[in-house]
From TrEMBL:
Protein name: MFS transporter
Originating species: Cohnella endophytica
Major facilitator superfamily (MFS) profile domain mapped to chain residues: 32-406
Alphabetized GO MF terms: transmembrane transporter activity
Keyword Metal-binding: no
Gene3D superfamilies with a match to the protein in the record: MFS general substrate transporter like domains (1.20.1250.20)
Transmembrane segments: 32-50, 70-87, 99-123, 129-148, 155-174, 186-204, 231-251, 263-282, 294-312, 318-341, 353-370, 382-400
Amino acid sequence: MSEVANSTRKADVTANLTESVSGGSLLKQPRAVWAVFFAGIIAFMGIGLVDPILPALAHKLKASPSEVSLLFTSYNAVMAVAMLVTGMISSRIGIKGTLLAGVVIIAVFSGLGGASNGIWQLVGYRGGWGFGNALFVATALTAIVSLSKSGVTKAIILYEAAIGLGISVGPLLGGELGSISWRGPFLGVAALMVVAFIAIITLMPKSSGPRVTKTKTSIMDPFRALKHRPLVVFGMTACFYNFGFFTLMAYAPFVMGLDEHGLGYVFLGWGILLAITSVFMAPRLQIKFGTVKSMAVMLTLFGLTLLAMGIWTNTQWVIIAAVIFAGALLGNNNTLITTGVMNAAPVERSTASAAYSFLRFLGGAIAPYFAGKLGEWFNPHVPFIVGAGFVLVSVLFILMNRKHVEHVDKAPAH
């Protein structure tokens, strides 16, 4: 009976994915999609851009690791709260207007960050950068899915590819420019965002804006969406595993013993694996094993990877190899959970994304500072061990709530 049920589930998943992607080739997209894709790469550079310069920032600005990690905390905290208003804003000024507003805000605050003279100024400007990124990220997913001609699943894969490329190129750019000056990466992003602004304003049609929602979205809509149990399950799962994700991002650079170039190349390898697996491997895992089972395996492996980093913290090659390997696990998980969220509840995609992202980035806001403090209070091993614990909690949480989210492999994209 289990084999029959398994075969039936695989057939349902395959049929659903086939229906979603039958619209056309992944690469045959309107110019507007490619404009958003290009801008997305630059926007997502911000996540990993500061990794290679964290130790240098701590040294040059006379800040502790926990203070420097606030660059992630302010960024993610503002993003979490701002996600709640992105739908309201985009329903009033349209997709194009929201994307352009996000790009301008990122450019302004990254430029101000490059001109700042102290850690607390920089932390504040990163918060502003996070607001711009929230406007862009939430709307970019909706824009690509809405404007794509190849179906929901391939549109999400394209979105995850932009994330992967941005995350992989970000550390490389951060390392190269950071070796000249710690200000370089911030000023570099500001310049690239000017290019992104020009690309969106020239290639994206005005008519693409209002088509997302026919009625204006309320600030309460994301909270109402959280009445749907599947969204809460995915959101809390992401919140827990983001403790591990941002422990790796914010604290690993301090224990590697590498300069800006070295850190840039390590996180480049991490980002390349993240991009490859998110585009090519995750969809196959979803078809063969289903979303929940695949996520549980990827997150378990990620938790064990963090545990290994906690045990062998003083062995440089273990930390480097673990960080790069983690990219493959996180690439798979990011695509799986994003696809699941799109089918989790009968609400607008933008509203579902806002509600999920609010919960997700709460974990990303707490973890970096928490990891830095744990390292200062105890020793460098503890942040990774605690991060591993949170990731394994995310596995238990999604498995305990499995019955509430299994439908995402069968539900047609709404």
